[in-house]
Amino acid sequence: MHGPDPDCLYPFNGEPHTVFLKNAITRPNILVGDYTYYHDDDGAAGFEDRCVRYHFDFLGDRLIIGRFTAIATRAQFIMNGANHAMTGLSAYPFNIFGQGWDKGFDFATIDAGLRGDTTVGNDVWIGREATIMPGISIGDGAIIGTCAVVAGDIPPYAIAVGNPARVIRSRFDSKTIDRLLAIAWWDWPAEQVSRHLDLIRGADIDALERAAISRPGARGTSRSHALPD
C-alpha cells in the first residue's frame, strides 16, 4: 500500500466533509498539488465558490497550492478582483454600476494595485477561517493560525497568527529549515513517502536526509518546488 489515491475526491470513505482538493477544482486559474485537502462539514467540494473570492479570469491571477497542504474550514483566499482603484481621491468603484458612471474609467487605475498570483507552498497548515490576501506567498511548512489575516509573505516553516498576521516564531532553526527545504520530501513519489513515513513524521532529520540521498533517482539534496506550473 502506498497511501490513499491522490485522484480520489473523498478520501474518508466517501464522506463529503473532506476532499483531496485538486479533484474538486474546475477553474483553470486554480492549481493544487496531490494530497492537499480541504475540510468543511457543509460540503468540502464547494471550496471554489465558498473559499476563493473575487477571482476573475480577465485579471490573470492564479491561486497555486502545493502538495500535502491542509486547509481548514472556511479559509478565505481573497484574489485580485477585490481590488479598488486607489490612485485618486476616492476608492469607490463607480464604474461597476454603469449607467454613465463607467465613462472615462481607466482600468490602469485598477491594474496598478494588482499583486499577481497567490502561492501556498507544500506541507502548509492553514487554520480555520484564516484569510489570505491577494498576491501573498506562504512558504513550505508554514502554519497559519485560526482567523489570521495574512497580508504579507510568510517564510518557510514560520508560524503566523493574528490580524494582521505576524510571525511569532519559526518551527525550526534556520539550518534545519534549509535542510528540510533541500530534502523536499513532498516531491517524492507516493511509494517513497509511504516507505519513509515514520521519518517524515518523526524528528530525526539526519535519518530523513539519508533517506532522501539514498532514494532511487536522487541526486543529493537540492531545493525543489512541487508547486504546479
CATH architecture of the domain at 18-172: 3 Solenoid
Largest sheet descriptor: 7 strands, mixed
Q: How far is the first residue's CA from the last residue's CA?
A: 29 Å
Using the coordinates above, name the CATH class of the domain at 18-172.
Mainly Beta
Mean pLDDT score = 93
Describe the structure.
- The chain is of the alpha/beta class and 229 residues long.
- 17% of the residues lie in helices and 18% in strands.
- It contains 6 helices and 15 strands.
- A 7-stranded mixed beta sheet has the order 1-3-6-9-12-14-15, with no helix packed on it. Strands 2-5-8-11 form a 4-stranded parallel beta sheet, with no helix packed on it.
- A hairpin with a 4-residue loop joins strand 14 (158-161) and strand 15.
- Residues 220-226 have low confidence and may be disordered.
Keywords, please?
229 residues, alpha/beta, UDP N-Acetylglucosamine Acyltransferase, domain 1, four-stranded parallel β-sheet, Virginiamycin A acetyltransferase, acyltransferase activity
